[in-house]
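Following the same procedure, backbone shapes were mapped to integers, yielding the entry below.
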Amino acid sequence: MDLSGNNFVIIGRAGMDFYPDPPGTRTEEAIQFFSCLGGSSANIGVAITRQGGRAALVTRVSDDAIGRFAVNELRKYGIDHAHVTPVGGEARTSLAVVETRIEDHQSVIYRNGAADFQMTKADVEAVDYTAYSALITTGTVFAAEPSRSACFHAFDLAKAAGLPLIFDIDYRPYSWPSAEEAAQVYSRAGAICDVIIGNDVEFGFMAGDYDKGLEKARSLLAEGAQVVIYKMGERGAVTLTPEGEFRTGIFPTTALKPTGAGDSFMGGFIAALAAGREVQEAVLRGSAAAAIVVSRVGCAPAMPTTEEVEAFLASHPGPVAA
């Protein structure tokens, strides 16, 4: 899997995040907030560009001030937004109110009439897939139509152009009619993809049994995936490749919040692969990037640069044994 072009097309949402300020403030007690770019796909794009790659986002945003905020933020981070399409009517760009605290942490997500679910087949057909190294998506894009069919169509177009498909499961129950439908759709997507990343709970729900998540990960590898990463929180991760399995731990850090780690992991992992690093080293660099983000305020603005990842690896012990 050659990602050396270091240029990625990402399908999925961009939104606005609000953080009660100063850090540690409970939302119900806040009198001021810090705003920044949000949405898992947009965050992954930032993570990649901060580490020297290029990224283009394909999605829809509401044709209002919040949608324009998201586009302005994409522009600020150097993410290609040519395929970010405004949609009118009652569609709304996602808003998340997220606390910078660990104890009794609350994240409140507003996704009613989500604009990104309005992405169509025409939106993905407008992309020149030959210009990119891989297609990346997060699972939320499959939760509703017409976005679901559009993304599967993008998979077909990307495959025809020779692109690897990289899938972050990113299961958000509130977006789905039922867990059963989500498991079926995610399994269909996973069977097509070359790289699949998720946590033990996500693989467990895909399997229909939370004790069989690792078996599900292994089955996806058997179906043709090149890399499957089964994350286990504080217990590290199991990475599966056709050459075998290996376990890695996590880097100790003082976390300010529990959010953003998955998007940062994906960005660090992909940036390392694009730089020609071996899979195991790429996993460790993704873990380092995740540790950095949870120690900072925000998600998109917390994404580390390559130099910051290098400095972290040079100054931090670890990873802790899995």
In short: The chain has one domain: 7-13+40-89+115-315. The mean pLDDT is 96. The longest helix spans residues 279-293. The CA atoms of residues 105 and 223 lie 38 Å apart.
